[in-house]
Amino acid sequence: MGQIDIIPMQLSHLDGVLSLGYRAYDVDAMPYTSWSLSTVAVHWDAQPEACWVAVDDEGLIGFVLGSLSYDEREDWGYLEWIALDERARGKGVASELVERCCAALFAAGASRIITDVESSNKASAALMRRGGFTEGVTVTLFVRTGPDKAPTAAHPPRDPARARLRRAARATGAR
Question: Global pTM?
Answer without folding.
Answer: 0.77
